[in-house]
Amino acid sequence: MAAGLSELSSVKLHDGDVLTVIIFGATGDLAKRKLFPALYQLMYEYPDAPLLPTTTRILGYGRNAMMSNDFIAKQCVYIKGSHRDDFLKQISYCQGKYDKEEDFAKLHETLLQLEGNTLSGHRLFSSLCRPLSLGVSAKTSTCGHVPSEA
Predict the structure, then answer these.
(1) Three-state DSSP class for residue 41
(2) In angstroms, what CA-CA distances link 25 with 5, 60, 79, 104, 150?
(3) CA-CA distances (angstroms) from residue 19 to 87, 106, 112, 115, 143?
(4) Are 50 and 10 in contact (CB under 8 A)?
(5) Hey, is 55 helix, strand or coil?
(6) Once rounded to an integer, what is the mean pLDDT over residues 113-124?
(7) Can you spell out the DSSP letters for 98-120?
(8) Would you say residue 12 has pLDDT above 50?
(9) pLDDT in tens, 35-81
(10) Count of C-beta atoms within a 10 Å radius of residue 148
(11) 51, 55, 46, 60: which is closest to 19 by C-alpha?
């Protein structure tokens, strides 16, 4: 039997643990209209909130070059509620290609900075990319940053 959302609220991170949600394809319409509002609801507005810790970091990853503030302004227009400002502070953006190992190395460094270089972090990946991009991403991803063999 699958757990309902209220049962999931009993899952707690330990002190010092960090949860980061990484969204591949974060500059698209699906992220703007559905994913960001859903994350806001899970963190602040759902009746049993928070179902995700309010300290959850959200990192958007996409091919479009833009500053984090521009990304947030563009992608979070549908976020409404009294905790909007708190939610927006949790969001960052990292630009990169899906077939470049050096861009995934940059993503890894960005994640370490967001997570305070902790080893007790937890990462949740969401891909809103076309399947072809996802396959290339999985092949070249260095989010665990295992160096390539020479």
Answers:
(1) helix
(2) 25, 7, 18, 14, 30
(3) 14, 19, 12, 8, 15
(4) no
(5) coil
(6) 79
(7) SS-HHHHHHHHHHHHHHTTT-SS
(8) yes
(9) 999 999 999 998 888 888 888 999 999 999 999 999 999 999 999 99
(10) 7
(11) 55
145, 105 Cβ separation under 8 angstroms: yes
| 3-state SS class at 33 | helix
Residue whose C-alpha is closest to residue 67's, from 93, 91, 43, 47:
93
Burial label for 31, CB within 10 Å (0-12, 13-18, 19+), is buried
Contact yes or no for 56/43 (Cβ under 8 A): yes
pTM here is: 0.79
Nearest-CA neighbor of 145 among 111, 115, 95, 118? Answer: 111
Give the strand order in the sheet containing 91-95: 91-95, 57-62, 18-24, 121-127
